[in-house]
Every structure is written in structure tokens, then in C-alpha cells.
Amino acid sequence: MFVHRRKGWEIRESEATPEHLFFARRSLLKGGAAAAAASWLAAPAFAADDPADALYPAKRNEIFKLDRAVTPEEINSHYNNFYEFGSTKDIFDAAQSLKTRPWTIKIDGLVEKPFDIGIDDLIKSMPLEERLYRHRCVEAWAMAAPWTGFPLRALVEAAKPLSAAKYVRMETFLDRAMAPGQRQAWYPWPYVEGLTMAEAANDLSFLVTGAYGKPLGKSFGAPLRLATPWKYGFKSIKSITRISFVAERPKTFWESLQASEYGFWANVNPAVPHPRWSQASEEVLGTQERRPTQIFNGYGEFVAGLYVGLEKERLFV
Ligand SMILES: Nc1nc2c(c(=O)[nH]1)N[C@H]1C(S)=C(S)[C@@H](COP(=O)(O)O)O[C@H]1N2
Ligand SMILES: [Mo]
Which residues form the Oxidoreductase molybdopterin-binding domain (predicted)? Predict the structure, then answer.
């Protein structure tokens, strides 16, 4: 039972504002505070000894177009939500303690035969491609990233789910020694997310193993994270260790904390404000720009059909 729950996004306005971190850093650089800046720039945003290194960069799938520039890697990899490593955006250094090998993913639940698979065997067995995707956090900041990975659908097919499976439930690792954030007992660890089977089979649902033409950096949720770019970013679960096929809608991490603000569907919609702020526009990370938010984050042509007949659901929370 908790009296004060520090809800994920319930951070002070000064902490929540992208400029606060990003532009403060940039002025550090400009001001010649080289030592402070150097550690930030020098640390590689990926594991150089990653066994899957040779598979990158993968061929880009040109179907997925951006309406904006790709966010520079240095900005994207240093402005993160990854509560396992802290509740600010500044988790890059802490996330370096994430140990990504060996890494086993458990596939279980309503499938023909549950199995475990090592991340490198999984990556080798899947059709890797690069996609340029937008990403829209519920906190009203946005970026764009070149993710490498494979369609979630390919893994669903390999898992051979039974017809009783209605949802895909995904879970992050649980290791309090490795991840200091997980020692904060008021969060319902491990992080859990979920999609309907139809959402998981949609072309856009993408399991990410790399970014910026390299194996996925730790702050991005190495070695395996989800990208569902028509949904708020909290759906894009990081550092996945378990994928279960289930009959019941899974209770997700943020939903457990505050269901009225962070629901299961979480589709992006400028017309439906978050209970505590507007979703009409978004801050484009790395720029001075605010842009109007687009319904389904601009991906309606791919996903609007998923929600026909579900209009009574809280689709946009
Ligand atoms: N395991 C885990 N996954 C997570 C989160 C988290 O804290 N832990 N944060 C989510 C949120 S709120 C967002 S916006 C994205 C952030 O991804 P990025 O840091 O690569 O931009 O990851 C999502 N996945
Ligand atoms: Mo987010």
C-alpha cells in the first residue's frame, strides 16, 4: 500500500522539460566545459563487443517514412525513460550496468510448446531490417529513431500461439542488484506491457535489436525492446526477457500505478488530453520546435482499422 505514489510522469515541470536537460548540456558544450561533456560524448551508446555486431547496419525498409529529421543519436541515447535505472531522463551512465549477455527470452503461456531462446539465436533467426520510426512519449516530447529489428509478428508465428491466446504479455528483467530503480519497492516490478494479438500482428509492431546502425545501446533497452510508434512510448517495453501468450488482458506497469492516466490502449491522440496536461502538441527533441500531435502519431493508415468496433474502449489513454 502506498500513500504517495510517485507516478512516472509526475515529475516536476523543470525536470520534465526537454530543454532543461538537453539545452543545459548543449550550453555546457558551447561553454567549453570539455571535461564534463567528454564523458558524455566518449561513452559509446552500444556494446562494441556485441556478438551480433556484424549484422548491422541492416537494409532499410523504405515503407516507413518520417515527416521530420532523425534525432541525433547523442541526444536520443541520453534522454531516456528507463525507470529500472532511475526516474530522471539522465540514466545513460547507470544503464551501463545492464548486463546483456547471456540473455534468454522465455516464450510461454498459450503456445504449442513453450521454449527459451538466447538473444543471439533469436536475432540470427529473424529477418532484420531498419525502420525510421517516430516515438511519442505521453509526457509530450517526441523523437525519431532508426531502429533495427524484426516484426513482432515473425516471433508470434515462431511461438505458435493457440487460438485461446488473445493478448501478448511482455516482461522486462527483474534484478535488483543490477538495476537500482528496482530497489524502489513502490513500483510494481518487473515492467510489464501488452498488446492484443491483432496489434502484435500489425505491420508496425517491431521488436528492436539495434539502433543507429549498431546493436542496441543499453539506455535504449538492450538487447530487445518493442516499438509501437502509434502508441505512447510507455508501451515500448525495454530489455524484454519474457513473452507470454495469454487469454486475459495483462495488467501493465503504469496501469498498475495509475490506471486513470496510463491505460492499456494508449493510442496517441491530440484531442484526448492526459488528465494533467494537453496532448495537442509535442516538443521535438533536439530542436526548438513544437509540432501538432497527430492521431495515432501519424500512423493511422497502418493501424486505424484495428480499433473499428472498439469505440467504447478508452483507446486514447
Ligand atoms: N522496462 C522499461 N521499459 C520502458 C520504460 C521503462 O521505464 N522501463 N519507459 C517507457 C517510456 S515511458 C518511454 S517514453 C520509452 C522511452 O524509450 P527511449 O528512452 O528509448 O526514448 O521506453 C518505455 N519502455
Ligand atoms: Mo514515455
Answer: 99-254
236 assigned to a ligand binding site: yes
Check residue 139 and give its pLDDT: 98
Dist CA 215 CA 147 (whole Å): 10
Residues measured by CB to lie within 5 Å of ligand 2, the ion: 81, 137, 233-234
> Could you give the domains of the chain?
50-305 (3.90.420.10)
**Considering the entire predicted model, what is its pTM?**
0.87
- Does the annotation place 242 within a ligand binding site? no
Nearest alpha carbon, ligand 1 atom 11: 234
Q: What is the position in ligand 1's atom list of the atom closest to the CA of 172?
A: 1
Whether residue 49 has pLDDT greater than 70: no
Burial per residue of 41-76, b for 16 or more beta-carbon CB atoms within 10 angstroms, e otherwise: eeeebbbeebebeebbebeeeeebeeeeeebebbbb
